[in-house]
Amino acid sequence: MSRIRAAARTAAAAAAGGLLLAGCGIKTTGVVESGAPAEIAVVAPDGTADSLVYFLTPDRRLIAMPSGYAAPGAQGALFRLLSGPSERERASGLGTALPAVDPGLAATTIATGPVGDVVEVDLPINVAGLPDLARRQIVCTAVAGAASHVEARLRGLDTALAPEPCRAGPL
Q1: Is the model more confident about 18 or about 136?
Q2: Cβ pair 73, 86 in contact under 8 A
Q3: What DSSP line would sit under 67-88, residue for residue?
Q4: Residue ranges of E strands in the chain
Q5: Nearest to 94 by CA among 102, 104, 105, 83
Q6: Quick check: helix, strand or coil at residue 63?
Q7: Which of 51, 118, 126, 128 has the greatest number of CB atoms lying within 10 Å of its CB?
């Protein structure tokens, strides 16, 4: 009988342990959304202005980088954007959707405003056929120092586009 009692005790202990584990009160759930991704402030290095330039990450997302120019505002940032990422930035995977622009031509870019809620950007390139990412790079760079509701109108050699807001988020 002692063998039967030992087996019964073992079975009872196993059943009780199973009930304890199964009855812990934690229910399974599906994926729980926790909100938007974190946003960080990009701060310019000492001695430079806080204007930002928007380049592309390897996964084709816009990323803000300090322009590196002491002059505040969009003018220097747009010149920097049209000049493209530096060698060091390219080595780290940053790129651009913009066509190559001669530095002499890039220097002729003019940004004025905002007047009302629109920054006017006169570019030395055609703008009608620019890919969406290229337009987004220019628009976000042009309005980086303005209020969040300000839009940019791109005016190129071929046409002027309707004002559009900065859409720096994913495609």
Answers
A1: 136
A2: no
A3: ---SS-SHHHHHHHHHH---HH
A4: 52-56, 62-66, 110-115, 118-122, 151-155
A5: 83
A6: strand
A7: 51
Query: Structure pTM?
Result: 0.69
- DSSP single-letter state for residue 65: E
The number of residues in the chain equals 171
Minimal CA–CA distance to 106: which of 128, 81, 88?
81
Spatial separation of the C-alpha atoms in residues 167 and 138, rounded to whole Å: 11
What's the CA gap between 111 and 36, in Å, rounded?
32
Grade residue 44 by pLDDT with cuts at 50, 70 and 90.
very low
β-sheet bridge partners, residue 55: 63
C-alpha angle 80-156-75 in degrees, rounded to nearest 5: 30
- Angle, helices 74-83 vs 132-143, to 10°: value is 150
Output 147 or 56, whichever has higher pLDDT.
56
Identity at 63, one-letter amino acid code: I
Query: Rounded to whole angstroms, how far apart are CA atoms 85 and 94?
Result: 7
